Amino acid sequence: MRILGVDPGLRITGYGLVDIVNGKQTYVASGVIRTDSDAPLPDRLHTLFKGLSELATLYRPHVSVVEKVFVNVNPQSTLLLGQARGAVLTALTFSGLAVTEYTALQIKQSIVGHGKAKKEQVQEMVKRLLNLPGIPSADAADALAAALTHAQTNPLISALAQSDLPQQMFKTRVRKGRTSWR
């Protein structure tokens, strides 16, 4: 089973893909989608939508995971981030992926062992868990951590990944605006 993790942001959106085969987590790819901060908001949102749609087509994940983001300091930043999350969620569902969301606290708890972990701790644990040769960028590490959290906290996914069921059974199809597991 292939899981696409996403750490949404308007300026930088991180992504990470992890395969789960026989209960083993394997790194597939990770990186970031950057938007031009001088571009109009609709163009930036389109960049996010297009980038994630292309990733879904290229890597064919079975499910996706998005970090729930909370910003309370600046209302304008919160509004912009909410719009970026909307573009991310729309791109994923448009690509036919089921979406699960976890808070940053849940992800840090799952990966590092406590919810107040620093970014550097998350990066180091992702590196160790996936046997990476180097430390991924903070945004890519957060996305990989989201994917790993889903794999570790969802026992059904782990059980199904170890089964001999055809992988196409996990693909979500969209018909007439509805999602179907068939």
What would you say this structure looks like, in words?
By secondary structure, the protein is α/β, with parallel strands linked by helices. Helix content is 45%, strand content 25%. It has a five-stranded mixed β-sheet. The longest helix has 20 residues, at 75-94. The radius of gyration is 16 Å and the shape is globular.
Task: Detail the topology: elements first, then pairings.
Elements: E1 2-7, E2 12-21, E3 24-34, H1 41-59, E4 63-68, H2 75-94, E5 98-103, H3 104-111, H4 119-129, H5 138-153, H6 155-162, E6 173-175, E7 178-180
Parallel strand pairs: 1-4, 4-5
Antiparallel strand pairs: 1-2, 2-3, 6-7
Helix pairs in contact: 1-2, 3-5, 4-5
